[in-house]
Each structure stands twice: as structure tokens, then as C-alpha cells.
Amino acid sequence: MASPGFFRPSMLRQNFPGGAPTFTEKNISDLAGKVYLITGSNTGIGKELALILYSANATVYMACRTESKARSAMQDIKAAAPSSTGRLEFLALDLGDLRTVKPAAEEFLAGQDKLHVLFNNAGVMVPPEGQKTAQGYDLQLGTNCLGPFLLTHLLTPTLARTAKVEPAGTVRVVWVASMAAELYSVKDGVDMSNLAGKGYIREPGAMEKYGISKAGNYLHSVEYARRQKQDGIVSVAINPGNLDSELYRSVNDQSGFQRLGLQAFTKFMLHPVINGAYTELFAGLSDQVTLDQTGAWIGPWGRFFTIRKDISVAGKPKSEGGKGVAEKFWDWSMEQVQQYL
Length: 341
Description:
two-stranded antiparallel ribbon; about 40% helix
């Protein structure tokens, strides 16, 4: 495992951000006519983000695994914003099953011809050891990387068309990563030599696998930024912050020192969930995020940071002095999802 680098200045500022969020619901105008898609929006920061956008009269597609939970969240959101003229729509999507992604995208496209921001928000963290996706991938690699990758690919033509008629830099894809990308991932974020078939050749530890999947989000973001900048689509990856969300629901399923460490972390270092939603909101709507910032790494609570150096270098193509890992991970991901396009 690469050195966590917890005491690197950038990491200290991300772990102890201080100050108030820089971009909140007070900073956004009427969003009537705008269309947003948020994965995993029935709970946590996704639900908070959906409320903010819906309250400003946006159309929000909530892409979730369980319809009953999504409908319940919709009722909560509507009750909290009774004067909204926006819309909430449910999309059935299980990022842990690639077969569900294209039908979800097709359902969205049947009702919309534009998409202003795709928030790749959903994810899993340190599930019980050995859990796999429906296609047999490590659950974190499949759910956190391959599912969002496929969804983004299928929605890219619509994003590109929207970017042609909207103000420059306002059509975006936000990839929700984590500080774990820097703390727990291997050298270069993802070790391509350790990926084969549907998983790892040498099985990493639970937190390391989570870190790899979150570094994968960053690598997908920067490669997407490189490929889609010409179409006017902004792509950014974010560390939403250390949040008291349901992402930590599997902490008690861990064993020994790992469980104790995670429990101590959740007790002393977590912030309100709404702060993470503000980080996403900044990435998705702030005018500080422009086409020139595509490929950026954004952290709490709406600030630009520099990711760990080896991951940054891995994200750049060899023609720009990088190692080309992002391009290789992109190509590997495309091979995995090809039959589900």
C-alpha cells in the first residue's frame, strides 16, 4: 500500500477543513428547466443534494436500487419543499448489476433530451469481505467504478448536446470519490498489473480495495475530462469530506483493529451530511468551476485541492509527462462493460 500521507498539507486541510461551506442553497438561483441525475439519492448526501436542487425548482432524477426507499425519500423532500415547482423522478438503477444500467439510461432518455449535471454519487464502502457484484466483480470496484463508468458513457451524447446550448462550463459530470483515494489506494491509485478477468490477482485488504475504487473514480474523471473537453463537458472528482452518513453502515461488520479504527474515526472526525452535499453542489453548480478546471480535484467544503502526486501523474497521458494509468484503466473499464452498451 502507498504511504497514506495523512500529514501532507493538502490532506490535513481536507480532513480538518475548518470554516463554513463556500457554496450553499443561498448561492443558487431558480433552477426551473434544469435537469439533474443523482445516483444513490434516497439517503445521505445524495438525498440532501436532491432536496437543495428540487427546492430551487429543478427536475431531479433519483437513480436508486430500491424503489420503496426512493419513493419514501421523495415524500420527505416534497414535504420539506412544499412550494417547489420542480419534479422528482425515480430511476431503477443498481450499480452493482451492469444489466440495470442501460435500461435506466434508456428510461431517462425517453423522458428527457437534456441533462445539465450527472452526479455519480452512489457507492459502497468496506462491505463484508467477499461480496461481489452480479457480474462477479469485487463489490467496491464494480459498484464504485464500473457502474458509474457505464452510466456516464451512455449519457454522454445527451450531455454533449446539452453543452452546445447552455452557458460554457455549466454541463458537468461529478464523480464522488473520497479521501480514501489518497489515504488507502496503491501506488498510482490503481495497479493495472493486478487487474485480470473480473477482479484482483492479488487480493488487497478491505480498506485498500475501497481506496483503489475511489482512486478509480478520480482516474475516470480526469480521463473523461481529457476526452470530453472538446464537447464542453466539465468533469471533476470530489472528496465530499468526512461525513456522518450511511456509507459507514458496514463498519460494525468488520473485525478486530479495523473495526475499532473505523469506529474511532466515525466518532471523532465526521461532519454533518449536509456539508458533503454542499461540496457536491459546488462541484456541480458553482461558477468557480469552469471548463479550464475540468479534471480538478475538489474537497471540503467546496475548495480546489491537489491530489496525491503519484495519482496525479498516473492520471496524465504519457504525452503530457504522465504514466497513462487513467487511459489504461479507462480502456480496461470499457472492456468490462462492452456487452452492456
